Amino acid sequence: MKLLDIGEVAERSGVAASALRYYEEIGLIASAGRKGLRRQFGPGTLVQLSLITLGKAAGFSLQEISAMFGRNGQPDLPREQLHARADALDAQIQELSALRDALRHAAECPAPSHLECPKFQKLLQAGSLTAKV
User: Fold this and answer.
1) Between 124 and 43, whose confidence is greater?
2) Could you give the CA distance from residue 55 to residue 43 in angstroms, rounded to a whole number?
3) Are strands 4-5 and 33-35 parallel, antiparallel or unpaired?
């Protein structure tokens, strides 16, 4: 097994070396040893980092992500939790799409005032925009 230097792992994964050290400190990843003062990691660490990055992008905390790895460092993904997060993302996508549509309409609306525009009024009354204000 070819070990990867912390700098190579950082470069290949796009994760800063400081984050790698922190992830190791909290038990998300484990180094295989050291060469001099530099940490060495197995190639499987790159897969773990990809999953960590994906989990963070999906809104999971590092603690939640940590729980998704079994004792041997292999993924043990909670399917129900993943379905719930995907559902939440779907709702967020719908809200953001409505906001995008309202912004586009406001930018292109020929009405003298956006508040005089019936379509903009409908968008405001739809609830997704006024509920956030």
Assistant:
1) 43
2) 19
3) unpaired
